[in-house]
Design goal:
With 678 residues, the chain is an alpha+beta fold. Among the domains are: 11-92, Roll (Ubiquitin-like (UB roll)); 372-478, Pleckstrin-homology domain (PH domain)/Phosphotyrosine-binding domain (PTB) (PH-domain like); 569-675, PH-domain like (Roll). Helices cover 32% and strands 22% of the residues. The protein has a 7-stranded antiparallel β-sheet, with helices on one face. Strands 21-20-19-18-24-23-22 form a 7-stranded antiparallel β-sheet. It has a 5-stranded mixed β-sheet with strand order 2-1-5-3-4, covered by helices on one side. Helix 6 runs parallel beside helix 9 (286-301), helix 9 (286-301) packs across helix 19 and helix 12 (338-356) runs parallel beside helix 19. This is FERM1 protein.
């Protein structure tokens, strides 16, 4: 019996579990505490009672019933709400986690299970030497996408473990701060801008040597020749509903891993969540560029994004090119002369401008007279009860609008129709081999989308008009400094598509060890025989055979960005007042309502026209207000509404980035835009 003089009536017994690795040492403890004891004092009392000499600095209390950490050590137990029935576990904040990267490699490292996911991802990216961590997040695979993999896992556990890259000795794994992962203008380049391999003289830049040159090469270099069995066993979405499953498992960036049910040694996917790749630089971003390339490659192979036959062959040629290039010895790659490097750097700097959407610093160009386009184009209007009506008109493109007239001479008068392209959807309709250069415009109107097709005569005309339409859809004119880079990007992509069979290609199948089925999606594997595919890939290969490794990856990313469905993340939603489900596509600059049955876009709403958005957490409904008294509300059926809320806020946050202050991230602003109030 304990006398009342020793313990006052206001004390109570608290059960504590210590999660330590010592065998035959007590793990369950009971302490007599008071409500005014602060959390730090409770830690001290517990450690004194454990009587094990070790470093307890990474330990904290995890409240099992409430699924929360008690990290504010100055708070009292009363303030935290801890009472006698609470079960507190004294456990480490950093635990082992397996991450499956976009290149399908699995890395094992220690991650903070108590920090918000946004901060945890930032630390992971510092370890892996990936800049711009705000573009990535962690994804938990949904049950629907795991069915095929489970059968394989049962039979091949040993193979899986062999493929894991263990980084458990990295600074982040030890709970220490890692290098920032960003660079300044005076920082030494850490990668060869041609091959993408780490520069050996600067390998010490990596965090405390945890990323050895070999490990870095695994993450920075691509090994795309996967087996057909691997491809067959991976989840391949067939419908928009299937694609919606891919985006259901994004973790909440404002909560910790432990709070979201993630356990030690669990496997999560590390993926690029936001498709706005800022400041790509081959000298510092070999790992980042390779992982973006790999995410794009798998999205195309698994048909997560649609592309035409011509485009698929371009993607296949760029991949096949890597196989032959990687067979070269490192000595051959290292012998590149300085003049070649300079030429490649110049080409890559142009590509970098293209990937960033143009250089916005040239203000003088943007304040001159706004140029216009004027040409004879064919207008195609789909008719419900008849064939498409095709007629030639004189078109004039000025500001962000297209006007068309019966003839060039009548252009001084009133146009037949004026189309305002601001906020419209621009879809390429091109077949270079058939000399078809079309532009499909989906223009928002009161009751949905107005469909208009423009047909151009040649590549140059198409590139100029397509670039003008793309900019106008974003509310920008041809005076914008990004217009010319956009034209060049389109011409470059068309040039890659425009190949002719030469005698060299006929002999190459003998010399190139290629499984063409590994470079194209299953749809095209069924359509063509293996020899036909090889020949067609090698035809396309003629236009990319002179590129460096990094340039080929950047071209691949650029071509991926040119696809109509690029950057769209799908969710099944029910709009307020609607009796059927729709698909909502979330992109970096807009939301698209899509008919689930046909896949046709119904309405587009631009973020630039958005006034405010919020969530009614009681009924889990997202409500958004736009200009001109337009408002929408919907509930999300395929995922938590918080995911869509975070997507919208995340894209708006990323649009505020600038090279002038690229060294630090405003984490507080991110959580303000994405966190919500539950």
């Amino acid at each position: 019996m304990v006398s009342s003089s020793e313990y006052g009536s206001h004390t109570w017994e608290l059960s504590l579990t210590v999660d330590h690795q010592h065998e035959n040492v007590q793990k369950e403890f009971s302490l007599q505490v008071t409500g005014d004891l602060h959390v730090g004092g409770l830690m001290l009392k517990l450690v004194e009672k454990i009587k094990i000499a070790q470093d307890w600095s990474d330990y904290a209390f995890w409240w099992e019933q409430k699924k929360c950490w008690l990290l504010k050590t100055h708070w009292t137990l009363d303030k935290c709400g801890v009472q006698a029935d609470a079960k507190l576990i004294f456990t480490t904040q950093h635990k082992m986690l397996r991450l499956r990267l976009p290149n399908m490699k699995t890395v094992r490292l220690k991650v903070s299970f108590s920090s918000m996911v946004f901060r945890a991802v930032s630390d992971i990216c510092k370890t892996l030497n990936i800049r711009r961590s705000e573009e990535l997040s962690l994804l938990k695979q949904s049950e629907g996408t795991l069915k095929k993999k489970k059968k394989k896992d049962k039979n091949s556990k040993e193979l899986v473990t062999e493929d894991i890259l263990d980084l458990c000795n990295s600074p982040v794994s030890s709970g220490l701060p890692a290098n920032p992962g960003l660079y300044s203008k005076t920082m030494t380049p850490v990668y060869d801008p041609v091959s993408g391999s780490p520069a050996s003289s600067t390998i010490t830049w990596f965090s405390d040597g945890s990323m050895t040159e070999q490990n870095c090469s695994i993450l920075a270099l691509s090994h795309p020749n996967c087996s057909l069995e691997t491809l067959a066993e991976m989840y391949q979405p067939r419908t928009l509903a299937d694609k919606a499953k891919l985006n259901a498992g994004w973790l909440d960036s404002s909560r910790s891993l432990m709070e979201q049910g993630v356990l030690e040694e669990d496997q999560l996917l590390l993926r690029f969540k936001y498709y706005t790749f800022f400041d790509l630089n081959p000298k510092y971003d070999a790992v980042r560029i390779n992982q973006i390339y790999e995410q794009a490659r798998w999205a195309i192979l698994l048909e997560e994004i649609d592309c035409t036959e011509e485009e698929m062959l371009i993607f296949a040629a760029l991949q096949a090119y890597h196989v032959s290039k990687l067979s070269l010895s490192s000595e051959t790659q290292d012998s590149t002369c300085e003049s070649e490097v300079d030429e490649v750097e110049a080409a890559l700097s142009n590509l970098e401008v293209t990937l960033e959407g143009g250089n916005k610093s040239n203000i003088l160009e943007d304040i001159t007279d706004i140029p216009k386009l004027a040409d004879n184009l064919r207008l195609v209007r789909p008719k419900k009860l008849a064939l498409k009506a095709i007629k030639t008109y004189w078109f004039v493109f000025r500001d962000t609008s297209i006007s068309y007239f019966k003839t060039k001479e009548s252009a001084q008068g009133e146009p037949i129709e004026k189309l305002n392209l601001k906020g419209c959807e621009v879809v390429p309709d091109v077949n270079v081999a058939a000399k078809k250069f079309g532009i499909k415009l989906l223009i928002p109107v009161a009751d949905g989308m107005n469909e208009v097709y423009l047909r151009c005569d040649n590549e140059d005309q198409y590139a100029r008009w397509m670039a003008a339409c793309v900019l106008a859809s974003k509310g920008r004119t041809m005076a914008d400094s990004s217009y010319q880079p956009e034209v060049q990007k389109i011409l470059s992509f068309l040039q890659m598509k425009n190949w002719t069979m030469c005698s060299q290609a006929a002999s190459e199948p003998e010399t190139v060890d290629m499984k063409p089925e590994c470079f194209v999606s299953p749809r095209y594997t069924k359509k063509f025989k293996s020899k036909q595919l090889t020949a067609r890939i090698l035809e396309a290969h003629q236009n990319v055979s002179q590129m460096s490794l990094v340039e080929a990856k950047l071209r691949f990313i650029q071509a991926w960005q040119s696809l109509p469905e690029f950057g769209l993340s799908y969710y099944i939603v029910r709009f307020k007042g609607s009796k059927k489900d729709d698909v909502l596509g979330v992109s970096y600059n807009r939301l698209i309502r899509i008919d689930m049955a046909t896949g046709d876009p119904i309405t587009t709403w631009r973020f630039s026209n958005m006034k405010q958005w919020n969530v009614n957490w009681e009924i889990r409904q997202v409500a958004i207000e736009f200009d001109q008294n337009v408002s929408i509300a919907f509930t999300c059926l395929s995922a938590d509404c918080k995911i869509i809320h975070e997507y919208i806020g995340g894209y708006i946050f990323l649009s505020t980035r600038s090279k002038d202050h690229n060294e630090t991230l405003d984490e507080e602003l991110f959580h303000k835009l994405t966190g919500g109030q539950e």
